[in-house]
Specification:
Oligomer: single chain
Helix content: 55-70%
Order of helices and strands: HHHHHEEEHEEEHHHHHHHHH
Largest sheet: 3 strands, mixed
Number of domains: 2
Strand content: 5-15%
Shape: globular
Radius of gyration: 22 Å
Number of helices: 15
Number of strands: 6
Length: 412
């Protein structure tokens, strides 16, 4: 076992240098943006060093195991759901649409968070084990397994539940392209986010500050107050970025993230593969560890009979296509006015997006299965998954991809 511990620690160090977020070089833009965000910048290297040190110590001391904590996991996420409901009630009270005692609501939230804080370490380890065992059951161990028969899960599945950093995304105004990302502090006010956006926009760019559900640091940084299904999907998604880093596909993604060789298609393939695997593994885990619960538990939002059904996905894709067309014609002002019009239209139909602009589409459009994407990559990857006999076979096929053209060639 000692030789495996040595190998695992080496992998930890390799994963640690994998970029969790990257940016392209846009001349003088880097220095100007850095000056704007300096007070709010999240020190990723310092955080990872501290987190990796703690994880390595636990591993060497054999403290990376836990007793069955399924009940703890369910209780933790039940509390998280209660917190989200209480926060929604608080927002309704502040908006004047509901009557309630804000102080009492906050007290209930604080109590639930304190309870979850006591459970967090056990829940983290329980989820790590569930993900690790499920990946193994699907024949997914490490990216070198196809070359060297070592049935050891590498990199080790390690997570940190908390509030992930925010991220600033910068795009040109005359096109939709993610040219710079900067990790920002987890705790930011709306006023601070808007001040950063205004500062970057004054330079002639489109900007947006978004919250993250997860980040492919090591250990993976995962949002702690989402629902269980989303959390498990995110854990697997971020682990897949670490796994893919040791493959041709992931290596090219790293070059894109570091700004060495931009390749938006490779970035989209990487993100979409991570999302597909995350969704499939999460469904298995949910079925095994949360018996009796529906795999895709979602509240019904069907309108009363006779009322038209609002199609969010269709609306977002139509919006993206229209914006692309306007920008291609050089009508930047019209494109921005149209996006604001669509944002208000979405809000009227129950979908609130704080800011809809080029940077928003550049960020969310990197996921080919997202409503904001118009890329055919999602359909091609789904076709490749359908023609693969297993998830393991799908990964073996996709991890060797070096270009958009190679993906198209693999689809029958």
């Amino acid at each position: 076992m000692s030789k495996y511990r040595t190998v695992l620690l080496l992998v930890i160090l390799l994963v640690a240098v994998t970029p969790a977020a990257g940016c392209g070089n846009a001349g003088g833009l880097d220095g100007q943006v850095e000056a704007i965000v300096e007070p709010y910048r999240f020190e990723m290297v310092a955080w990872e060093f501290e987190a990796i040190s703690a994880e390595a110590l636990d591993f060497l001391q054999g403290q990376d195991r836990t007793d069955d904590a399924t009940l703890e996991v369910i209780t933790y996420f039940t509390n998280s759901a209660k917190i989200r409901n209480l926060e929604a009630t608080q927002n309704a009270v502040r908006a004047g649409s509901y009557t309630g005692d804000l102080a009492r609501l906050q007290s209930e939230i604080d109590t639930l968070r304190s309870q979850n804080a006591l459970r967090r370490a056990a829940v983290e380890k329980a989820l790590e084990i569930q993900v690790r065992e499920t990946l193994s059951s699907q024949g997914i161990f490490n990216p070198l397994d196809r070359y060297i028969d070592i049935k050891v899960g590498l990199p080790p599945v390690k997570i940190h539940l908390g509030q992930p950093p925010h991220v600033l995304i910068v795009s040109p105004r005359d096109s939709i392209e993610n040219i710079k990302e900067v990790d920002l502090l987890p705790d930011m006010t709306l006023e601070e986010m808007e001040a950063i956006e205004t500062g970057v926009e004054s330079l002639g760019y489109s900007a947006i500050v978004e919250g993250l559900g997860g980040l492919s640091t090591y250990p993976s940084y995962v949002l702690d107050e989402a629902d269980l299904r989303f959390t498990v999907e995110t854990i697997v998604h971020e682990w897949m970025h670490q796994y893919l880093s040791f493959t041709p596909l992931g290596f090219r993604y790293m070059l894109d993230q570091l700004g060495i060789h931009s390749d938006y298609d490779i970035s989209t393939i990487n993100e979409t593969v991570a999302g597909m695997v995350g969704s499939e593994i999460a469904a298995i885990i949910y079925r095994i560890y949360v018996p009796g619960e529906p795999v895709a538990a979602a509240p019904s939002s069907a309108p009363p009979a006779g009322e038209p059904i609002f199609d969010f996905v269709k609306t977002m894709r139509e919006t993206r296509l229209a914006v692309d067309d306007l920008l291609a014609r050089g009508e930047v002002g019209d494109a921005e006015a149209f996006m604001e019009q669509q944002r208000l239209y979405l809000a009227q139909n129950g979908y609130y997006i704080r800011k809809l602009n080029q940077a928003y589409f550049a960020f969310h459009g990197a996921y080919a299965d997202s409503p904001t994407s118009v890329s055919p990559i999602g359909e091609e990857l789904r076709a490749l998954r359908d023609q693969s006999g297993s998830l393991e076979e799908f990964l073996d096929s996709v991890t060797g991809i070096r270009s958009r053209e190679e993906l198209a060639e693999k689809v029958d």
